[in-house]
Amino acid sequence: MLSLLKKLTAMATPAPAPTQPVAPVASKVDPYALGLYDAKLSGWFNQETNELFKGFEVSAQDTLLDVGCGDGGNVHFCGMRGAKIIIADIDAAKVDATRQRLSDTPAREVECHVTDCNPLPIADATATRVVSTEVIEHVDDPAQFLAELVRVGKSGALYLLSVPHPSSENLQKDIAAAEYFQKPHHIRILSEEQFKTLVSDAGLEIISHSQYGFYWSMWMLLFWEAKVDLSNPDHPLLNHWAETWQALMASPRGAQIKQALDAVVAKSQVIIARKP
What we know:
Keywords: Methyltransferase, Transferase. The chain has ten helices and ten strands.
């Protein structure tokens, strides 16, 4: 089951864009396009370096597995690099939608699995790249889940893993809809140390641990108050926030201020790790 941020990011992922992030300009700010621009500033979707996230390069020689693929925003980028793509999700409709989304990419092969990932129907030492973003907070047994991810990775495989950051989750505790923190949604909040320990205990070597997403943290906080639908989040609170963030990003020190705010309240924490 996807977290709200993962759904928003997937909705925002467009066709290939210029290699350098360009702030959206429109009479009314599209919050999803702005969120994608913000994500690119944080290191996502770098077409010039072929990095899905900073430090996680994908090439045509890779076999990339995305567990909890959702709507396919991440694997679409990787498919455009020509990699073999393996997708796995518990939601059959998401798997089918992602399969269709990958049909316009030069991915050398696409393999699809509808599964609860316990276990993954994939052979040992299959993938050179493993992606699982905003999934671990949903699963009943994170250690078992990560053990499966490690099992299917080749020696030397890179892992891109993310979970919500506690600064944002704790901010929303008394504001979000009750079901947001109930199964099958977010059933746990992982501190930075807990996240790193889970990954290390699974046998992976952590390369980097970062955080980003102040924009989405505040947007979500206002989203709960606005009580609008995700498909049409039209509300003064959300519109004004998007306009403010776009103006900030266009200011001379916008990127510096974003970095400072991301360090205080982040939507997600991201680990890049390697299988020995």
